[in-house]
Amino acid sequence: MSRSLIASAVLAVLLLVAASSSLFIVNQAEQALVLRFGAHRATIREPGLHAKIPFIEDVVRYDIRLLALDPPDEQIILGDQKRIVVDTFTRFRISDPLKFYQAVRTEHQARAQLSQIVSSAMRRVMGQVMLPSILSEERAHIMEQIQQEVAERAAREMGIQVVDVRLRRADLPEETSQSIYDRMKSERERQAKEARAQGYEWGQQIRARADRERTVILAEAQRQAQIERGQGDAEAARIFAEAFGKDPQFFTFYRSLQAYRHALGDGNTTLVLSPENDFLKAFGSGPGSRR
Question: What confidence score (pLDDT) does residue 18 get?
Fold first, then answer.
């Protein structure tokens, strides 16, 4: 192989390396900074093929799309000294890549610093409001204040445009929730005891009233029974008197038979009487008996 061919091949390789080092592509989702020995030379926002001086200039690319920040939950003390655990999310984009590069260099560092800005704004604004405000329509206005403060600081310090800051969730801390639950449970148990005691008292009153009414009803029934029994006895005495007046001898005979039945009806009674005894006159064996 001749020296001219070798030289041509080496030159072609050098030209290829120089071309690849001097050209770069910026896609539609990116923006780029061209730095010469670390100093800013150009900001490229248009997608396409661009040129730079090889080995002298460097290209730093940043995403032009919306980026998400989801910091961990944190506790915040409100204006009424109540503690809540808030869960927020932030949406932002890099609006000034040069300021962003000078301030934080990387997206990772930007997220860490932006998290501190959001936390600071949340604590400052929410530290002046009460818990009911967070749970009411005022919540939207509170979040607007927080977003405005975060947006101003992020744009001024890092070249970031904050599009949205939202409060995804606001809960009481676990220990506070447990304390409230225990207090509610104790209150419900107290109310249950009061209800049971009141029910027992009402039950006692109802039973006492029922017993009193039962006693009155029984007394009235007994009184009415005594009246009916007295009326029956009087009616029986009247009938007996009428019967005695119509046939005294038959009435005497009938009464004697009743006496015999009561005295001798069980079959276990033994009477020893003389034949002249008046008790036996109904059988015709004594004086005054019926013939």
Answer: 60
Query: How far is CA 278 from its chain centroid?
Result: 97
> Within 13 Å and on the Cβ side, how many CA atoms surround 113?
19
55 confidence band (pLDDT: 50, 70, 90):
confident
28-47 CB burial, b ≥16 within 10 A, e <16: eebbbbbbeeeeeeeebeee
Least confident stretch, 35-39, 68-72, 112-116, 120-124: 35-39
pTM: 0.57
Closest listed residue to residue 255, CA positions, set 291, 228, 290: 290
Domains for the chain: give ranges and CATH numbers.
12-63 (no CATH), 67-177 (3.30.479.30), 247-291 (no CATH)
The sheet carrying 57-63 orders its strands as 39-44, 30-36, 57-63
| Residues 233/237/239/243 CA torsion (nearest 10 deg) | 150
pLDDT in tens, 89-119: 999 999 999 999 999 999 999 999 999 999 9
Alpha carbon 124 to chain centroid, angstroms: 31
Residues 267-285: tens digit of each pLDDT: 666 666 666 666 566 555 4
DSSP state of 72: P
Q: Work out the burial of residue 65: count CB atoms within 10 Å of its CB; fewer than 13 is exposed, 13-18 middle, 19 or more buried.
A: exposed
Q: How far apart are CA 22 and CA 62, in angstroms?
A: 19
Six-digit token string for 290: 């019926």
Contacts of 192 by beta carbon, 8 Å cutoff, 6+ apart: none
Q: Where are the beta strands (DSSP E) in 114-234?
A: 160-171
Q: Which residues pair with 171 in a beta bridge?
A: 85
DSSP string, 147-159: HHHHHHHHHHHH-
